[in-house]
């Protein structure tokens, strides 16, 4: 965790310095120099953006959500660099894509929260990528980000599991940490990758059972099993 924490602090310092001093911008995908920004038009144009919202329909309950793009190509590179290589600049790019989608779709919400990780997983990685994305969105719109869901049991990595196994794997894995802000609110639930929807559905149900009026899921990328 120490190394990850130091890398995160270095990222914050670099961000501050970039405001004070001019520097060369490079595309985070191809390395091409840019006049400004983080990704060139050519690399952006290769991203397969999603056009329509989705619905998770389970046990008679429908949860609506949005994916920025499909989990392929350049978006996969950005996610993996952010998630496993502590490249927070990639996180900024992904967060800005989510902001663009919110603005295009005119998504309205009162609060923001995120899919949690277990304490041991956070200690191993040093940060929760979904929490960082949520905070980028919250800062843009001036909406409070609440850490209200707790993951109460370790689960297997969802990679490689079938659809049914994924649902079983995450069942009863979450509980509310603090529900004082939840009652009557429309909540944006943020995560990085959407596959079957099992994880986000379980988190959404936890919010609704504790007084949430509505939950909208927002993820960076839609993946196939």
Span from first to last CA?
A: 30 Å
Major beta sheet summary: 5 strands, mixed
Class based on secondary structure composition and strand pairing: alpha/beta
Q: Order of SSEs, N→C?
A: HEEHEEHHEHHEHEEHE
Percentage of β-strand residues = 15-25%
Total beta-strand segments: 9
Rg is 17 Å
Q: Spans of 5+ residues with little confidence (pLDDT < 50)?
A: none
Principal-axes geometry comes out as globular
Mean pLDDT equals 88
Number of helices: 8
Sequence-ordered SSE layout with sheet pairings:
Layout: H1 2-20, E1 25-26, E2 33-34, H2 41-45, E3 54-58, E4 61-70, H3 73-84, H4 88-105, E5 111-114, H5 119-125, H6 129-141, E6 149-151, H7 163-170, E7 174-176, E8 186-194, H8 198-209, E9 214-222
Parallel strand pairs: 4-9, 5-8, 8-9
Antiparallel strand pairs: 1-2, 3-4, 6-7
Helix pairs in contact: 3-4, 4-6
């Amino acid at each position: 965790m120490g190394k990850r924490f130091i890398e995160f602090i270095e990222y914050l310092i670099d961000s501050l310095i970039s405001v004070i001093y001019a520097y060369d911008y490079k595309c985070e995908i191809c390395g091409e120099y840019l006049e400004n920004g983080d990704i060139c038009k050519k690399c952006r144009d290769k991203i397969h953006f999603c056009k329509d919202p989705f619905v998770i329909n389970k046990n008679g309950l429908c949860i609506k959500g949005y994916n920025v793009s499909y989990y392929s190509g350049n978006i996969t590179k950005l996610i993996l660099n952010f998630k496993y290589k502590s490249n927070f600049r990639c996180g900024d790019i992904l967060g800005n894509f989510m902001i663009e989608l919110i603005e295009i779709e005119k998504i309205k919400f009162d609060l923001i929260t995120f899919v949690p990780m277990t304490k041991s997983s956070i200690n191993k990685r040093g940060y929760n990528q979904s929490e960082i994305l949520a905070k980028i969105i919250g800062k843009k719109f001036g909406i409070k980000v609440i850490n209200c869901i707790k993951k109460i049991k370790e689960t297997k990595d969802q990679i490689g599991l079938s659809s049914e196994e994924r649902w079983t794997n995450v069942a009863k894995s979450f509980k509310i940490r603090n529900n004082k802000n939840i009652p009557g609110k429309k909540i944006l639930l943020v995560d990085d990758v959407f596959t079957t929807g099992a994880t986000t559905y379980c988190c959404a149900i936890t919010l609704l059972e504790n007084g949430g009026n509505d939950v909208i899921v927002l993820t960076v990328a839609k993946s196939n099993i």
